[in-house]
Design goal:
By secondary structure, the chain is α/β, with parallel strands linked by helices. It has two helices and six strands; from the N terminus they run ββββαββα. 17% of the residues lie in helices and 39% in strands. Strands 2-3-4-6-5 form a five-stranded mixed β-barrel. The longest helix is centred in the C-terminal third of the chain and has 13 residues. It starts with a strand and ends in a 5-residue tail after the last helix.
């Protein structure tokens, strides 16, 4: 089974399929929501019941399948609320991993 690939919205490509993104929930509408990771926005599709429980400005991680037919759209398989996580430290570590660098 192929793992989810940690990506930023600005780096999403057509070759990406299973992706993991984290960011702030900007808005909800029915069974979808918009999430911003600081590099861009992505539309996340889920079920209406799950979306209705999410709060605007929540810090989330979404793992799912990128839709090839729609730019910057992900069909969520897992939505993780990162409440209580230090956003600054989380993003610092994530960027270091994405860039393949060690920060000291």
């Amino acid at each position: 089974m192929k793992p989810y690939k940690e990506v930023q919205v600005e780096n999403l490509t057509e070759s990406d399929d299973k992706v993991s993104l984290s960011g702030i929930l900007v808005s909800t509408a029915g069974s979808s929501f918009v999430m911003d990771d600081g590099t861009g926005q992505v539309i996340v599709l889920s079920d209406e019941e799950q979306v209705s429980r999410l709060k605007t400005n929540s810090f989330l991680r979404v793992m799912g399948m990128k839709l090839l037919s729609q730019e910057n759209t992900v069909n969520a398989e897992i939505i993780q609320d990162l409440l209580g996580i230090d956003k600054y430290l989380y993003n610092k570590v994530r960027k270091a991993i994405l860039n393949g660098k060690k920060e000291g």
